[in-house]
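REQUEST FORM: STRUCTURE PREDICTION
Request ID: SP-0412
Submitted by: Lab K.M.
Chain count: 1
Length (residues): 128
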Amino acid sequence: MTEVAAALIWDGDKFMICQRPAHKSNALLWEFVGGKLEKGETKEEALVRECMEELGVTVSVGSEFFDIVHTYPDITVHLTLFHATISEGTPELIEHNDIRWITPEEIPQYSFCKADDEILKRIMQKEN
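STATUS: Completed
RESULT:
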C-alpha cells in the first residue's frame, strides 16, 4: 500500500484543487495537492515537501480532515488529507496542468481522482 498525504487548503469560502498533468496516471483529473511519502518521512513532512515541489509554497499543516484507502487498477493508496494553510509563497504551476480555487457547490463541475470521492462528499456535507 502506498501512503499519500494531501492538503485541503482554504482561502475564504474556496479551496484549492490541482489538475494532474497529461503525462501521468489519472491524467487531467483534479486532485488535492500532495503526494507519496518518502522513506522515513512523516505524513506532515511529506506534505510540506510535496507542496514546495509541486506549487513552490510553504504550508503549515494542521489537523487531519479525512483518510481513506482506495484501490486503483495499478495501485492501492492510503490517502490522508490534512487541513493546511499557505504560510509563504504564491502557488505556481510547477507540476500541475492547472490550479483552481472552488467552492463546495462547484465540486460537481470537475472530474476528480476516484480516491477523492468520499472526501468531496464530506466537504459538501460540512458546507450545508
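NOTES: The two ends are 34 Å apart (CA to CA).
Reviewed by: T.R.
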